[in-house]
Amino acid sequence: MGKHVAIAGNIGSGKTTLAELLAKHYKWEPQLEELDDNPYINDFYNDMQRWSFNLQVYFLNLRFNQILEIRNSEKTVIQDRTIFEDAYIFAPNLHSMSLMTTRDFENYFSLFHSMEQYIEAPDLLIYLKASVPKLVNQIQKRGREYEESIRLDYLKKLNERYESWIATYNKGKLLVIDIDENNFPDDQEDLGKIIRRIDAELFGLF
Q: Which residues in 145-173 are b (16+ Cβ under 10 Å) and which e?
């Protein structure tokens, strides 16, 4: 059976780029977050309060089906973002910022708990840690129109929730990459450092 490797991190941290690079290196099956195909993403960034519940349910369903596919695959799959981030970071953050009503949040979390019994954690979780200025720089660099309206306080609160979640993560192996210190998209040596750490975690190779 193949393994399940997942990359977690805030908006703009480089999850998709790293997933593609690792998929190419290891010949893994990439499972990417195709935001351009998301029917809610533009509406959400224009009016977060109106569309937060719709967007989060869409992601929850998408990620749950991805997990079922991974479980039935014989290949090693590298996943761009996890269902746990949706449930423990994005939805609670929207609720705490009054961008999702309590009624919708409780409904959302009830749905997640129903799914949770069918969910297994990845064999390895790679967390891309980044400062808010680094995230903003990378978001601006990729130039997605719908991301231009992302609020700084939104990114900051997400970062705080990521740090709290990672500090208590105990579902499996964890690898933390500080992308303020690692320029893997443009530096082969930095990418090599990540690959060596993955080898050690998954295959016991040093």
A: eeeeebeeebbebbbebbeebeeebeeee
pLDDT tens profile 27-68: 999 998 777 788 998 899 889 999 999 999 999 999 999 999
The CATH code of the domain that includes 56 is 3.40.50.300
Q: CB-hemisphere CA count at 13 Å for 157?
A: 17
Backbone phi and psi for residue 42, each to the nearest 5 degrees, phi listed first: -65, -45
Which among 80, 86, 123, 190 is annotated as catalytic? 80
Tokens of 159: 């970062």
Domain of 137, in residue numbers: 4-203
pTM of the model: 0.91
Query: Is-catalytic flag, 80?
Result: yes
